[in-house]
Amino acid sequence: MKKSISLLFILALVLILNACFGNSQSNKNETSENNQSGYSVTDVRGKTIKFEKAPERIATVDKPFPSIIYAIDGRTDKIVGSNPSSIKALEESVLKNMYPELANANTKWVSKDSVVNVEELLNLKPDVVFIYSNGKKEIEKMEAAGLKVVALKRAEFDSIKENIKIISEVLKKKERGDLLVEYMDKGINEVASKLAEIKDEDKPKVVEFYSDMKIAVNQYNHWMNPSGAYNPAHKLEGKLAEVDMEQMLLWNPDIIYLGNQSDLMPEDFIENKQEGRDWSIINAVANKQVYKIPIGVYRWDPPGVETPLMVKWAAKIQYPQLFSDMDMEVELKKYFEYVYDYTLSDDEVATILRK
């Protein structure tokens, strides 16, 4: 009787062990299959790109991408190649303190105008290349060489948000991308909601100079509109337009902004340093309302991760009484802590805000 009980016990134990081993083996097989299948991401062309694992070596053809990747992925040495202008922006901004690893990225494979030398790029062995979708010729060259290329949208704030979502999916950080987009929308809506009832005729006339006598037509609507700026150039054709002093006198803007693509500085206008032009009779200059747009992690005027800061900064200049309780130094520190997990020093804040 005892022997029978012992045999039954051993048999039951064997069955339990087999079941456990079987489940364990099944889990291993399932994990193995998942690793083999990887994951897929659809870019703005509607093309599906397959990845076996999150990329460890990244190349960025166009200028703002490293700052977006930094916001999603944090401080990393994954960017092995970038546009030379991205490094120039790094050197001009506080990003050099926050992300010194980016300075090691190779720039020999791409021109400032985003023309790619495929042979040089192949030497970097990138797992993925990010590029704007309008660079069709460059995309074709890279894909013909067997590279994984993810195309992104250009030059609108909504497209920046879409780009963040796509990049975060590629990096397997979708939740982080969603949180960033939500935070950016919240920052802009804080300002836009306060200005919703203001009519165009009550808004300050605002002009941004992209370069010498070249002004923004609708190039920067993504920050001008929500910040309550009235751009008298909005009826002209194109995104940028050349103007003369006669046109500036007709518009007589209340505020002039100077973009970071140019070397123009407020004193060039306020001190009348330009030969053949008398800026002193323009309201913005007479009232010393000429401002150089900040550079944070990247330039603030093109669409980017810091567009909400650009909107807040401009709104405070344009409506000082309405936004008297908004402290841009506080806003800046708070934003950098959330988006970049970085605590700005007072000196860095002063550098960004050009104080």
Number of DSSP E strands: 11
Enumerate the spans where pLDDT stays under 50 for 5 or more consecutive residues. 1-36
The coarse silhouette is globular
Structural class: alpha/beta
Measured by DSSP, the beta-strand proportion falls in 5-15%
Order of helices and strands: HEEEHEHHHEHEHHEEHEHEHHEHHH
Note the topology:
Layout: H1 2-37, E1 39-42, E2 48-51, E3 58-60, H2 65-73, E4 79-82, H3 84-92, H4 95-98, H5 118-124, E5 128-132, H6 136-144, E6 149-152, H7 157-170, H8 174-195, E7 206-211, E8 214-216, H9 221-224, E9 240-242, H10 245-251, E10 255-258, H11 266-270, H12 283-286, E11 290-292, H13 307-318, H14 328-340, H15 346-352
Parallel strand pairs: 3-4, 3-5, 5-6, 7-10, 10-11
Antiparallel strand pairs: 1-2, 7-8, 8-9
Helix pairs in contact: 7-8, 8-13, 13-14
Protein traits:
alpha/beta, globular
Structural account:
It contains 15 helices and eleven strands. The chain has 355 residues and is α/β, with parallel strands linked by helices. The strands form three sheets. The chain has a five-stranded mixed sheet. Helix 7 (157-170) runs antiparallel to helix 8 and helix 8 packs parallel to helix 13. The chain is globular.
